[in-house]
Design a protein that fits this description.
This protein is an all-alpha fold. Helix content is about 80%, strand content about 0%. The protein has eight helices and no strands. It has helices at about 1-25, 30-55, 65-85, 95-110, 125-155, 160-195, 205-225, 230-255.
Length: about 260
């Protein structure tokens, strides 16, 4: 049953991506609407999978690379749905939908066995720390998707109200992601002191989380203090996404440390 839900979500996301691009290329609104509802159906399967896995495991399904990647894809999907419902940000779907599919495809390549939590993970900080990371990374990725869409449309549209909306929404996503990443780092420091008797150990995951935090702090400084906006900041959000993905994937793969289980 779990595998059916997981791969149904993956297949629905893929179908949504194909229809979204088909609708854009052939300018068929009915096709893009069908793509959206397939994407929502994929998000429902993604949600049902995480709930079912959590029940089967008797814990939050966030303990390893597979579970985090699955939750990461879900976080992007949920935030995209909120953006479209609340802000009518349909323009970001063409870039964000493929990201959801790619992240879940990465999850599909990871071991899916349900395992017991390591002793270090059995903490009240588990949900707050890792849950905040899911939505922080999702916000940063969506900001990058919005920035890429901005750059693709900027040459054609020049200055427009839609581009201004994109620019401001990317800023708000970065601000949200930065706030949540701050929660991740602070809660992780407290948790580390309890688990390893040290608030900070310069573990690769800690170090790259800090690098990511500093990178987005620079973005916010440029935006708020230097009043930068538009094309330059759109490029910033796009270029920062690989750093986020390296913090999530690259560190675990290439730089083993105390967080190698996650």
């Amino acid at each position: 049953m779990l595998n059916i839900l997981f791969f149904a979500g993956l297949a629905l996301y893929l179908a949504a991506v194909v229809l979204e691009f088909g609708g854009m290329v052939f300018k068929k609104e009915a096709v893009t609407k069908a793509a959206w509802w397939l994407f929502v159906a994929g998000a429902v399967c993604n949600t049902a999978y995480l709930v079912a896995r959590g029940i089967a495991a008797g814990r939050l399904p966030l303990s390893n690379q597979f579970e985090f990647a699955t939750a990461f894809a879900w976080g992007i999907a949920v935030m995209l749905i909120v953006l479209r419902m609340k802000f009518r940000a349909e323009w970001v779907s063409a870039v964000a939908m493929p990201m959801v599919f790619l992240v879940l495809s990465y999850a599909a390549l990871q071991p899916k066995e349900i395992t017991e939590l390591m002793p270090a993970l059995r903490s009240a900080w588990f949900g707050l720390h890792i849950g905040s990371a899911v939505f922080s990374y999702a916000a940063f990725v969506l900001a990058g998707c919005g920035g890429l869409r901005y750059l693709l449309l900027e040459k054609r549209e020049g200055e427009s109200a839609r581009l201004s909306q994109m620019d401001y929404l990317c800023y708000r996503l970065v601000a949200l992601g930065f706030l949540l990443l701050t929660v991740v780092i602070l809660s992780g420091a407290i948790w580390a002191e309890q688990a390893w008797s040290a608030f900070w150990t310069w573990d690769p995951k800690e170090t790259w989380a800090l690098i990511t935090w500093i990178l987005y702090a620079i973005y916010l400084h440029l935006r708020m203090r230097k009043k930068r906006s538009g094309k330059v900041m759109a490029w910033f959000t796009v270029i920062a996404v690989p750093v986020v993905l390296f913090t999530f994937i690259g560190v675990n793969t290439l730089l083993p440390g105390l967080h190698s289980y996650g």
